[in-house]
Amino acid sequence: MKEKKNLWCFGHTDFDRECITHGWNDSNIPPDIAFISIVGTTECQKYYLEEVEEHYYKLPHPNVLNLEFDDISEETIEWMGHEFLGFSTTQAQETYKFIKSNLGKDFWIHCRAGASRSQGVVRFILDTYGDLYDWQTLKSNPCVTPNYFVTGKLKRLAYEDIDEVE
Q: What is the DSSP string of 37-56?
């Protein structure tokens, strides 16, 4: 039996700390790990956060996907004069292709808290490619509340992909 790869989910701070601890940066990113970094949109960050969240890896890499969307269950919501943007169809397609092209690597996925948006991606990978991955978690991140809008969009793409192949 082939050894499973690891699937990690982090909050933003833990993700950055782990990358720093390993000494990784844009000039020496490990090629055997696929990184998915999710931060909120500028509008959401202005409304909710005191500091700006940025992606740890800023340069383009084949094994890094940087996404900006808010933790909502629709493509857009307007509330109190602010427009929040959810996981778009384009982002779902990009994410699905990224996951497929990086299968066989460990995955490190993060969002602000590591509890909803990133968990939506984790849930998709476990449901679709669970025979390839062991889910890892930190005690501080029990991973129990995935954003099912994210999971659902990715699963629809996988079903469409399967239908096209058959």
A: EEE--HHHHHHH-SS----S
Contact at 8 Å (CB) between 53 and 39? Answer: yes
Q: Which residue's entry shows tokens 């099912």?
A: 148
For the ranges 1-10, 102-111, 118-127, the lowest mean pLDDT is seen at: 1-10
Distance CA 87, CA 61 (A): 21
Q: Which residue has the tokens 């969009």?
A: 153
- Tell me the domain boundaries of the chain: 6-165
The highest-level CATH class for domain 6-165 is alpha beta
On whether the pTM is more than 0.85, the answer is yes
Q: Among candidates 84, 95, 77, which has minimal Cα distance to 156?
A: 95
